[in-house]
Design a protein that fits this description.
273 residues; mainly alpha
Length: 273
Amino acid sequence: MRLNGWATIKWSFLLIMIVLLDFPFFIMLITSLKTKAEVFNTSIFLPKHWEFANYIKLWKSTGLGNYFLNSIKISLGSTILVLLFSIPTAYALSRLQFIGKNIILSLLLVIQMFSPIVILVPLYKMFAMNHLLDNIWSLILINTTFSISFAVWFMYTFFNHIPTEIDEAAQIDGCNEMTTLFKILAPLAVPSIVTVAIFSFINAWNEFLFALTFIQSDNKMPITIGLYSFVGRYDVQWNYMMGASLLSTIPVLILFILIHKHLVKGLAAGAIK
C-alpha cells in the first residue's frame, strides 16, 4: 500500500502519539520488575535482573487481592444503582410534563459543578450519625450520587430523540410505562446504557478522597487506598507500587475490550443527538 504525503504525516503523528501515551505504562512495567536498589539507581534504565517474582510477592504479601475485590464490589454496586435510578428517572423527565421539571434538570447540573471536597465534612458527619463510617456501602452511595447526575442527563438526551410513537404503539399493545421502558426502549438504548455504566464504573474504581476519609479497616480498603499504602513515612516501595498500579488498570482494560463497540456507538449517538 502506497501512502501519499498527507497520509504519511497522519500515520507518523498517530504513531508518535501512541508511543507518548504508552510510554508511562512501559516505565511502570520496567520499574515493577526492578529490585529496590535498581529503582533508585538513575544510571540503570532496563533491569539487569528481571524480578518477575515481584508480582508474586506483591500479591501474596500485601493483600492486593482483597483491595481488588473491594474495588470491584464498590464499582459494580455503584454502577448497578446508577443504572437502576438513572434510566427510569431519565425516561420520566423525557416523557412526563410536570411543574418543576426544569428545576430538577438544573439541580442535576449543579451537582456536577460541586467539587467533592466541598461536602466532605458534612458527609462525614452524616455518615457518622448513621453508622456508615468504615463501611463499603458508604462508598457505593457516594459514588452513585456523583455519577447519577451525568447518567440522568445522558439518558434523558437519548430518550428525547426516541419518537413518542413507539411508546404509543406499545401502550396500544397493552404495555404500561415500566414495560414500555424496560422491554421496548431499553434495548434501543443499550449503547447509551453501556456508556453510562462504563463512566460510573471508572468513577468508582478511581475514587480516592472519600475512600481515604471514610475507610479505616485494611480489609475494607479499595485498590486506590491500597496503592497509597506503599508510600511510607520515609520510603516509597516504587517497584511494588508500579506493579500494583499496572495490575489495577487490567479490570478497566478488560471492560473496554468487552464492550468497546457499544461504547463507541453510545458516544457517537450522544454526540449526534
